[in-house]
Amino acid sequence: MRVAMIGTGYVGLVSGACFSDFGHDVVCVDKDASKIERLEQNIMPIYEPGLDALVEKNVKAGRLAFTTDLAKAVPGADAVFIAVGTPSRRGDGHADLSYVYAAAEEIAAAITTYTVVVTKSTVPVGTGAEVEAIIQKVRPDLKPGVHFSVASNPEFLREGAAIDDFKRPDRVVVGAQDDKARETMKELYRPLYINETPIVFTNRVTSELIKYAANAFLATKITFINEMADLCEKVGANVQQVAKGIGLDGRIGSKFLHAGPGYGGSCFPKDTLALVRTAQQHESPVRIVEQVVEINADRKKAMINRVRAMAGGDLSGKTIAVLGLTFKPNTDDMRDSPSLDLVPALIDAGATVRAHDPEGMEEAKKLLPDALVYCDGPYQAMEGADIAVILTEWTNYRALDLDRVKSLLSAPKIVDLRNVYDPAQMERDGFEYSSIGRPTTS
Ligand SMILES: NC(=O)c1ccc[n+]([C@@H]2O[C@H](COP(=O)([O-])OP(=O)(O)OC[C@H]3O[C@@H](n4cnc5c(N)ncnc54)[C@H](O)[C@@H]3O)[C@@H](O)[C@H]2O)c1
């Protein structure tokens, strides 16, 4: 089948590369010419494990190509995916759909044969209908269900494990209004059909809502365990054991029960907020999600208090080593990362901040204050620092040489916001150590 992928970011590039690996002919389109130039030289514009090899293999096989020219990629395509960004609209938190609608207009002008236009971007309920209306406005000659269809196919991949998630998903969700679209989508996902991946066919609005409901549920689960962690600290309980004790219950499940500094990333913050706004608009508020949004934002802001407490109440003149800047390991994505709250707050409080991140420092430079000192490795960041803060659980921070850490820090103090180390072990090793929802040593 022929596929055009509009938007070649985290989702578009991974989806495009995976569809080509399924055997389809895929053209990935982006209006960012520098991205396309780099991809043509097999230089990945994002960090995602395994992506460069997958792209190279499929480009060599002639199944994957890149262009800035949407008008050339769309004609003759069986499916055109919209995978552009849907960030929070400034001011009100609604999803900004301007990129989606602009892409829909361009696609409409370029359709030549029956095409399914698929929203892969995370879009609020009703967006598919709006995309259909835009296409009809631009091309009154095209009839929905006859010359084109608009379907919804939200993406559930996780950055850092994106290829595996795309190829071995828990499920695929397709929202379609007619059989022609359903048949095209079935054919596209045939390799997963053979693997017996559950494919949930539903109507467009339901599919659109499934994506937001999934993200809001996961964000709620994280927020729940974060609040349990705070309570654990007050009563002397251990949140990791609470998580294990509840997670073994099949109705609860053990995933997404890791307490930490608050969720970040390109999806949960904006999607929870967008769901809150959609629900308010329809006068059916999701009050639990409203609370989650508020609690999480407060939590990210409050993380500085843990570093301040370790510093004895005053951060001015202190040097803090921050290990990890991205919102999670194995990505270079900095969007809504907890570091965007913590690092500026530390600097405002008068601290010098020395940071390291294996993949995120280029992106971080665009978003964090110039005063932040970037270091070549975790040990360089800790040289002469008063406190080390573990903010992202990259593998190479999980097995630090603790004797070396001790010799580098001015005093052996670690604030571990990801619960990477064992408090008892840290006590034995002579560290002053605080983590989330577990006993603090001093
Ligand atoms: N990143 C994730 O983990 C993830 C997971 C699931 C769903 N999503 C959703 O997928 C969508 C895309 O997210 P992303 O992280 O890939 O975004 P991104 O910002 O990495 O990529 C979007 C790309 O679209 C391009 N673009 C915008 N308008 C265009 C146009 N008219 N023509 C061609 N290219 C255009 C941009 O230049 C950019 O490269 C969002 O709705 C997001 O919520 C993201």
TrEMBL record:
Active-site residue list: 267 (nucleophile)
- Which residue range or ranges hold the UDP-glucose/GDP-mannose dehydrogenase C-terminal domain? 321-423
The UniProt keyword set, sorted, is: NAD, Oxidoreductase
* InterPro entries reported for this sequence: 6-PGluconate_DH-like_C_sf, NAD(P)-bd_dom_sf, UDP-Glc/GDP-Man, UDP-Glc/GDP-Man_DH_C, UDP-Glc/GDP-Man_DH_C_sf, UDP-Glc/GDP-Man_DH_dimer, UDP-Glc/GDP-Man_DH_N, UDPglc_DH_bac
The residues that hold substrate are 156-159, 211, 256-260, 264, 328, 429
Pathway-wise, it operates in: Nucleotide-sugar biosynthesis; UDP-alpha-D-glucuronate biosynthesis; UDP-alpha-D-glucuronate from UDP-alpha-D-glucose: step 1/1
Q: Which Gene3D superfamilies match?
A: Cytochrome c1, transmembrane anchor, C-terminal (1.20.5.100), NAD(P)-binding Rossmann-like Domain (3.40.50.720)
- Which Gene Ontology molecular function entries are recorded, alphabetically? NAD binding; UDP-glucose 6-dehydrogenase activity
Q: Which PROSITE patterns match?
A: PROKAR_LIPOPROTEIN
Kindly state which reaction or reactions the protein catalyses. UDP-alpha-D-glucose + 2 NAD(+) + H2O = UDP-alpha-D-glucuronate + 2 NADH + 3 H(+)
What's a Pfam family this protein contains?
UDPG_MGDP_dh_C
* GO BP annotations listed: polysaccharide biosynthetic process; UDP-glucuronate biosynthetic process
Q: Origin, by domain of life?
A: Bacteria
UniProt-annotated binding residues for NAD(+): 30, 35, 86, 122, 159, 270, 335
Q: What Enzyme Commission number does this protein have?
A: 1.1.1.22
Q: Which family does it belong to?
A: Belongs to the UDP-glucose/GDP-mannose dehydrogenase family.
Task: Tell me what this protein is called.
Answer: UDP-glucose 6-dehydrogenase
* Protein species of origin: Parvularcula marina
